Recover the amino acids of this structure.
């Protein structure tokens, strides 16, 4: 046996020679192997578990003898008897190298482990959170070498963890002395390393070795809904996902009406800021309760939002966003104390991070979609639409990425729809209309049965059938078009024209009765001519935005489409294409990214390097301003027809034949005119 | 004439060759000549005025022709006609080099000018304030290259002033857009550059070019008094000096009684923190009113204080400072937002800086004295005593500096003295007692007349004669000793022993009647036996601390003594030495440094580099702990006698002969015992 030995780590493949007696953890650190440790090698935290492999390893050119590591020691015995340990495992800080050895680092011992989410959108995120726990042993005060307790804690963090120049606020300073004494000069700190060159900051500390949870909130602050994921900062697990309506809706349904509210009402922006901050506090409380944790265990919050929500969250009057040149007060990312945003339902020292905006109309939510979907890494030309009250649209591939936003309005979210409601139990979410009988069947959230399945009435008894949500209205309109009850111009036919009583007159237009619950005391759920118009406006805006990017890119088709947004997962690609929401592509090239903005927020929450990445990326995304581009208006008008007045949809036509009906050549939807012609 | 020309700047002597046509300001910047400019060379601010010199300059080896600079231009004409300019002056940003030239930079055009204070302690401070005004021209927003207004402001600061990575808080972000538009994309920012590697921060901004004042507070937060200087951050001028009693006195007169209060009363530290912060707010308001400025124009506040005041200011329970090992929660300097200290009577964005502490009993006030008096740069052995409720004592020279603090109590400040009061009009501040007649004469604050001068009664009619202040009691006790009315043990003699009715019995001891105002309805002002005891305790503590440092230094005499402290300027060296407050030195080697701690605070306020300097210096000051040093007690007991029981005072004896009286060999001051012996 030589004086030193070869140590090979898997799965990284990193290898090096070390003097006999070197702890495995030390070898791992020197090689830069990703092996976790909270206690810094003191045999307390058990995070550094490793699995030695014995025998011949021709692949590595090494043979591992039985005595390649030191025998089990008392620390390991105690740990195993007290808390259990998988057979074959060792503590990396206790086991020392005594001969050539192959060491496997299991996933749960890696700091930067890839974690698979169980809930929320499935996504592997490499864990590299800003805040983590570090155990330290602090020198006791010495009257003859006087220094402050904080300065000795800082030295301990430097010497034991390589963390330089830590800071802390006065609240932590106040708690420091009792905690250090209670822990007999041992303590665990929650350290926020920040991004860029921010100085690391101690957010919290506990006496002795502490293993409590650190949690973070990833918040997608939309015009209509505020959605949050509560994540464990240790492994990225989503403990709970929750959402609520944005209370700013009472000041205006869409972005521009809120900007107008701020312009017309002095102090209106302050009112809206207060409302949204209160809602976020309420959301933090409810999501923490749902997950069974204390709000004080939430140490970080990451925000993605459109520019108007961004400014109102930060307490900045959004008035400049309502007029050209749509100047943002600040476009860069922001790292701040959560309490600067009056977010009091978090740990008092919690940090906030707001993703950068791309432009005055393309916000941090679009940046988050870019972070999640990475169009700049795509080989083929991908169109990503994040459907909300405002649609964020990205188009690009490895060579170039374009972005715009388009004011779709809240129709896709079920607002401004006569029977519209948010996606909640009782809401109709799927619709089919028989092209022969013109009879509908549907499904409601909360039951897997269709309305013509046996037991449906029983299954929906508790929720009732209360309305129609965003994906339901899209399907309903597309089905009406496919069943020949709606013409390309967007007019619902009369009972005589369509041959069904369900197309019933409502004033001078017609509505389609989707479900009449009045006999059971429920609502009558209809698709009105006004609903069709709202959907037409929304889908025209969406399509026109996509077309504008395609013009700028110089393409007239895209390779694939990704539907993102809170209900992106629920939109049927076929129905979206019948409606002409998105450009014509093969149906199997339309995929859903779920809540991509929310996923982007989670990535930024769990991985500090991703923050730097998106901050760099946004500078390379070219932004197209829909509001001042004359072509936008032309695209918008042409997209008003269902699916489109001029663009061919060959891929759609190959699978769906749309009935060639026309209920009013004039297209004005006027009973009077129709009668005159009839 | 050649293609370039030689430019020589005086008084710096810096020189270089520049292409013809180079503005003088540009040449100065490239050579690192200290030439001010707020507007960055746009001819707006006039800070860059220079004086060209013409003719032969053999010393510089150059001859300056008449056309060495370009002719006066329109910008200069306009400036001169509007605001006036000294003959011979030019604007450095407008005048361009056309030939060899000698350029004088007058003191008022230097950024780092040395400024002589008119009030407060006279002191030259090189100006290098943390916060200064910078004028910038910001690019307008461009829809096609979207960035935030803040990001374009940051670019302007980088390109026009070389300031990288500025930050700002949300309150400033909120104001940014209206200000930039009002100033048509020109603005002036108040930039705080911070010390160390802190990122520069915009504290305030104004549309266009702005010349308003930036002010700072230097606060000496003492146990008994809080003293503040309001300084102009442009030139260091002291606009007003003010003080008030520390309201914490109601929780305990000295440091240890306040620590006890915190220990005995849960929440007591919070109460004391609130009290002192409220007092500082009140002081800020009154000093701003006195100077005729708005409190919002105060952008910085610097604190010096002893460790207990330090912790209570920061909101940290000082309990650990009451017991060995006297551990500070934090000893380093602190840079923070003033509003973290609830200081609301300043600009909302005002920054705070707290000097570092040296040890658990030797605080930031001692550090400030070290910064002001620089014992580490002294060739001879200097003893610096900062007299207050706690005395900070420094001893050293170039080779080594020692420090300790000694609990003198508040007697030197007129507290715990029967007729004691703070130094205010009406207080007796000077005392003489005729050694033959034993009659006193005195002066009161507010009048230059002695009490036996004609017109004294008239002159003091308005203030009255209300009590005796710290310097007055010191003189009174020393005069009693010199007049033979007080013996070395500290006993006041009886009327019989002293031959004067003014030594009047008070219970079992005697008091000296300094002034009887009872006929005019004023108080009877006496020096009681209790007053003598209080002064003895205080001066013994002070002397014992000094001796302890001399022991540690291995010297039995010092070369000179500097008396510092709020009333250091008013203590007569002779009386201090008769009392035995300070070690024996030639009288003309005793000087006053005035409020050296306050001066140190002003230096740190006006010069950022000084902060770095003192932060480095405190690590080299060796601290001696009086509380646990057994020799301290011995020194204390021996110092109880007036001037001293054992130490010879040859320098004092050479100029003063102290009567060899003894009023009670037992020293207990008991009438009963005296009677038994008599």
């Amino acid at each position: 046996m030589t004086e030193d030995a070869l140590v090979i780590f898997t799965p990284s493949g990193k290898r090096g020679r070390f003097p006999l007696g070197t702890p495995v953890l030390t070898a791992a650190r020197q090689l830069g192997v990703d092996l976790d440790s909270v206690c810094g090698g003191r045999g307390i935290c058990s995070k550094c578990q490793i699995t030695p492999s014995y025998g011949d390893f021709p692949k590595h050119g090494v043979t591992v003898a039985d005595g390649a590591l030191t025998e089990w020691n008392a620390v390991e015995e105690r740990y195993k008897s007290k808390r259990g340990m998988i057979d074959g495992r060792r503590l990396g800080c206790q086991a020392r190298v005594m001969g050539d050895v192959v060491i496997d680092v299991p996933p749960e011992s890696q700091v930067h482990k890839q974690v698979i989410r169980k809930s929320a959108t499935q996504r592997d995120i490499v864990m590299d959170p800003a805040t983590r726990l570090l155990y330290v042993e602090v020198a006791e005060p010495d009257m003859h070498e006087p220094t402050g307790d904080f300065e000795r804690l800082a030295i301990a963090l430097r010497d034991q963890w390589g963390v330089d120049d830590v800071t802390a606020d006065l609240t932590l300073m106040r708690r420091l002395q009792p905690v250090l004494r209670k822990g007999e000069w041992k303590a665990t700190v929650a350290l926020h390393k920040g991004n860029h060159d921010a100085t690391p900051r101690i957010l919290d500390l506990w006496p002795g070795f502490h293993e409590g949870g650190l949690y973070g909130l990833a918040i997608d602050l939309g015009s209509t809904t505020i959605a949050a994921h509560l994540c464990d900062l240790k492994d990225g697990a989503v403990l709970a996902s929750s959402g609520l309506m944005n209370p700013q809706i009472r000041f205006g349904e869409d972005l521009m009406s809120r900007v107008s509210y701020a312009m017309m009402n002095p102090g209106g922006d302050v009112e809206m800021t207060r409302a949204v901050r209160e809602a976020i506090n309420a959301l933090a409380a409810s999501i923490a309760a749902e997950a069974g944790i204390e709000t004080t265990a939430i140490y970080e919050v990451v925000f993605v939002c459109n520019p108007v929500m961004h400014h109102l969250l930060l307490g900045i009057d959004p008035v400049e966003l309502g007029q050209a040149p749509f100047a943002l007060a600040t476009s860069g990312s922001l790292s701040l104390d959560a309490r600067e945003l009056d977010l009091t339902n978090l740990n008092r020292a919690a940090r906030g991070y707001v993703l950068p905006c791309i432009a005055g109309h393309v916000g941090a939510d679009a940046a988050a979609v870019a972070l999640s979907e990475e169009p700049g890494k795509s080989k083929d030309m991908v169109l990503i639409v994040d459907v909300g009250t405002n649609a964020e649209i990205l188009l690009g591939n490895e060579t170039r990425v374009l972005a715009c936003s388009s004011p779709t309005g809240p129709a896709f979210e079920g607002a401004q729809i006569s029977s519209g409601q948010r996606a909640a139990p009782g809401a109709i979410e799927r619709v089919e209309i028989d092209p022969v009988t013109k009879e509908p069947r549907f499904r409601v959230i909360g039951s897997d049965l269709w309305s013509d399945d046996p037991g449906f009435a029983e299954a929906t008894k508790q929720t009732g059938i209360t309305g129609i949500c965003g994906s339901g209205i899209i399907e309903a309109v597309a089905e009406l078009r496919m069943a020949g009850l709606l013409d390309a111009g967007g007019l619902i036919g009369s009972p005589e024209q369509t041959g069904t009583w369900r197309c019933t007159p409502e004033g001078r237009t017609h509505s389609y009765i989707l479900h009449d619950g009045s006999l059971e005391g429920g609502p009558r759920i209809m698709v009105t001519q006004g609903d069709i118009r709202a959907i037409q406006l929304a889908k025209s805006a969406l399509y026109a935005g996509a077309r504008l990017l395609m013009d700028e890119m110089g393409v007239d088709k895209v390779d694939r489409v990704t539907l993102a947004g809170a209900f992106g997962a629920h939109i049927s690609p076929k129905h979206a294409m019948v409606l002409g929401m998105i450009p014509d592509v093969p149906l199997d090239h339309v995929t859903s990214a779920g809540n991509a903005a929310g996923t982007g927020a989670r990535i930024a929450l769990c991985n500090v390097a991703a923050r730097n990445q998106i901050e760099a990326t946004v500078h390379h995304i070219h932004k197209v301003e829909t509001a001042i581009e004359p072509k936008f208006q032309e695209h918008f008008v042409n997209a008003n027809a269902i699916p489109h007045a001029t663009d061919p949809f060959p891929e759609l036509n190959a699978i769906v034949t749309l009935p060639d009906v026309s209920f009013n050549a004039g297209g004005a939807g006027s009973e009077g005119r129709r009668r005159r012609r009839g």
